[in-house]
Amino acid sequence: MKLALKGNKVIWLQLLLLFVASCAMVYSSCVSLALRAGNPPIIIVLKHIAHYLIGFAVLLGCYFIIPMKWWRTLSIPAAIFIAVALVLAKVVGNGRSINIGFDFQPSEFAKTSTVLFLAWVLENKKLETFKEYAFWVLAPLGVTLLLCLMGSASATILIALIAGVILVSAQIKKRFLLYTAGIALAAILAIIGLHYSLKGLGGDSPFGRIDTVVARMERFFDNRDETTLSPEERAEKKTKEFQQETAQMAIQLGAFGKAKGPQGPGGSITREKLPNAFDDYIFCVIVEEWGILGAIAIILIYLTLFYQCILIARRCTQTYSTVTVLGLSFMIVLQAMLHILVNIGAFPVTGQTLPMISRGGSATLSVSIALGIILSINRSLDNQDQAKLAETEVAVTEEVPDMPPIEIISNEETSEDNEIREF
Q1: pTM of this prediction exceeds 0.70
Q2: CB count, 10 Å around CB of 187?
């Protein structure tokens, strides 16, 4: 059987470009990790390539093997499976992941499963009453967000934003959206109150990530004059802001040129200082080594990917396919933009990686599944178009009537007729 990669060639090209950029940047930025692990950088890169190839194999499986109707069937079981995995990560894991030979992070897959679940609900449920809306949308979404918050606050915020955009785009009744905003605000205040109450009583809170979010927000908005701080406070502030300041220095070096050191791939002078240069801060290394043009090229790849997905969604005739394509593509681009904003210092630290470029296992696999589903939908649309074209050609052939034989008139007869007309 011959396998051909058909469909949107632009997306396939973008995947190739992201793969090349990912290998180059992980190799360049993993120096600090290699030093800590005592391994040469090539070992880390080979492991990263292995993760990437596994992700690409999964992508091809989603593209070739799993038809669209299967995703509809798997939407609810997938959401339940991820919810159970989130609980297990808290019970038997480290809170964020489960070790199953590699660190499986359920919160990464919760983004994709949430989009699929909402697409199924919006296609199969009318949501005419708030009771129905609360049962099919608010309750499952609330449980997912609550479980994600126990392991990753940034993933929780990302899922909430994605769900919000989907619900607004789906033209849910405005009063339902207003109720949702009010319930969300009340839930946030209740969770924060419960968290600090448990801490005040000396107990453990399941929402420890709230402290991380608050600390990052405080660092981001802390504009106090250092001269007013004590030496201890100044030292603590410098330690906490070290990563972000180093990332901004890398951005400045790439934007305005280095004072020393080579420019280009492998020429970063900040990669050894950044503990997470290979995932959370890989974009700043891209800017430092490739300059502004390289950074713009990466951004354009994500924006072009989103545009291509919009074109695919416009061809969809069913709600599930439309919501799935738009939701998954928005998920990828939103995560990329948040990563970039953090790296340039325009947003508090989130810990979100740059999709398909940063080193990662679960993150790469999750995005690979999302892209595989998008390409699978595009493949289904192409097959439908080809089938309709074939049916049209057959119908046109059958409807053309038999033409009567054409009578050929000789030149002599024509000349005689002309003479009669002239007379």
Answers
A1: yes
A2: 14
